[in-house]
Structure formats: C-alpha cells, structure tokens
Design goal:
127 residues, single chain, mainly alpha, 7 helices
Length: 127
C-alpha cells in the first residue's frame, strides 16, 4: 500500500522517457482513494475496484527503484545485494500482510462459507 502511494514521487524522480504517461496512469487511483477516505461510511466493495491499480502502482515503484539502484550502483556487488535484500523484504512483508488480511476476512466475515458448508452437508431428499 505504501509503495503504491509513493509511486508518483518515484515516477517523477525517475529518468524514464514515458514518465508522464506512467504518472497519468497512476494518479487516478490515488485520487479515487483520497475521495474514498473522505467518506464517512466506507464499504470494501466500493474500494475493491482499485486494488489491482494499487498492486500495479506498487510494482511500478519497485521496478523504478530497482532500475535507479542499478543505474547508480553499477559495479558494487555489496550495494546490489543490499538492494536485493530490501526489495525481497518489501515483497515478503507485503505477502505476509496480504495473507493475514485474507485470514482476517475469513475469520470475521465467514457467513457465506458457513452457509455453503451447511448446504453441502445436507442430504438430498428425493421428491
């Protein structure tokens, strides 16, 4: 989530030729997220449409940071290995957060799963 929010800054600092196209691609979801945070009553079903864009924006940030590190630190193996550790750590933290969120959703909002489990265990009665 944090990587997707800093993506406009990473794009502006980068030396990519298509930086303005990338910025126009990333800004709408940040604006939409800002509008949703101002609402008093939030429901996840209305915010869930921007999850793919958040993931894409975070991936773009990681990619541009990786290119920037490789650009400035060409011959240093130590710096490249530190950069790899940082990127892999960020990805692992994101994966742990995503998995814990999935478990929390299952634990706290599992009524549909319980209904399907009950319906599945019912015996079929002939008509």
């Amino acid at each position: 989530f944090g990587l997707s929010l800093i993506s406009p800054l990473v794009i502006l600092v980068s030396r990519e030729k298509e930086k303005w196209q990338m910025l126009l691609f990333v800004l709408p979801h940040i604006i939409q997220l800002g509008l949703f945070t101002m609402l008093e009553h939030k429901e996840e079903r209305f915010v869930s449409m921007i999850y793919p864009m958040l993931c894409l924006s975070a991936a773009l940030s990681v990619s541009l940071v990786w290119k920037g590190i490789n650009l400035y630190v060409r011959n240093s193996r130590i710096a490249k290995s530190i950069a790899k550790v940082v990127v892999i750590s960020a990805l692992l933290v994101t994966a742990v957060i995503a998995i814990s969120r999935s478990f929390a959703l299952y634990k706290n909002y599992r009524a549909p799963q319980e209904i399907f489990r009950y319906v599945n265990s019912m015996e079929e009665k002939p008509l």
